[in-house]
Design brief:
Length: about 70
């Protein structure tokens, strides 16, 4: 599940999620918008904070099958 979708579904603000995950609000914002790559550390924190609903694989853009 994409991080933005998780936040919307759970009704959690980026600021609140950042606090729960131990990340800066700026980092969460950049990740939601796809403007930076997720680090291993951040991916692990996000997975823990989302109880496994958002994983490192969710940050990988997959090409559509032709």
């Amino acid at each position: 599940m994409k991080l933005a979708d998780y936040l919307a579904r759970e009704g959690i603000s980026q600021k609140e999620f950042a606090k729960r995950a131990g990340l800066s609000t700026a980092t969460v914002s950049l990740l939601v918008r796809g403007l930076v790559w997720v680090s291993r550390d951040a991916a692990a924190k996000i997975a823990r904070a989302s109880k496994g609903k958002v994983t490192a694989d969710d940050f990988v853009q997959r090409e559509a099958a032709e």
